Amino acid sequence: MKMQYGAYIAMAGIGLYAMFVGEIISVFYFMSDQTFATFEPESKILQFISIGAAPGLVMSGTSYMLARKFGSKQIGWLVIAGGIVLLVGMSYAYTILDSIDKDYQVFTVIITPPLFIVVSIPVMIVGALLFRIKKRPKKYF
User: Which residue spans traverse the membrane (predicted)?
Assistant: First the structure.
């Protein structure tokens, strides 16, 4: 079965979500163990959002836009998988929040996991919208 361009774009979105989750979890662990140097978590978290989560959302949206006219179960499942990666990863990151040093528990750090848990739900809904398959019009010429 030949894959559509939207499927490759959706796979890139999954990769970007996984990268973002890995970055957030690793920086949260760093902040929970870190006691010897100064560290600005706001700028690092915003950097991770701009290089991981934001492009991942763009990839999911692009996949949806490419496949929305006729629907695609394959692309729908890939977009839903990206939402699940984001949901599970941010749920785990949320459990690490209590172990982070109080000096680093700033607004950006505290809001990131719940914000992206909420963002993952519409991503999965958009993927589910692609399950509506419509018949392609016949082209005679």
Answer: 7-30, 45-66, 75-94, 106-131
Domain ranges of the chain: 5-129
Tokens of 88: 């599970």
Q: How many CB atoms lie within 10 A of CB 2?
A: 4
| Residue 141 to residue 133: CA distance in whole angstroms | 23
| Amino acid at position 118, single letter | V
Long-range CB pairs of 39-46, under 8 A, 24+ apart, other chains included: 39/104, 41/104, 41/106, 41/108, 41/109, 42/106, 42/107, 42/108, 42/109, 45/108, 45/109, 45/112, 46/108
List, for residues 6-44, the tens digit of each pLDDT value. Answer: 899 999 999 999 999 999 999 999 888 866 677 888 999
User: Per-residue pLDDT for 109 more than 90?
Assistant: yes
Distance CA 56, CA 83 (A): 10
| Separation between Cα atoms, residue 41 and residue 31, nearest integer Å | 8
The predicted structure's pLDDT at residue 135 = 65
Distance (Å, whole) CA 35 – CA 44: 17
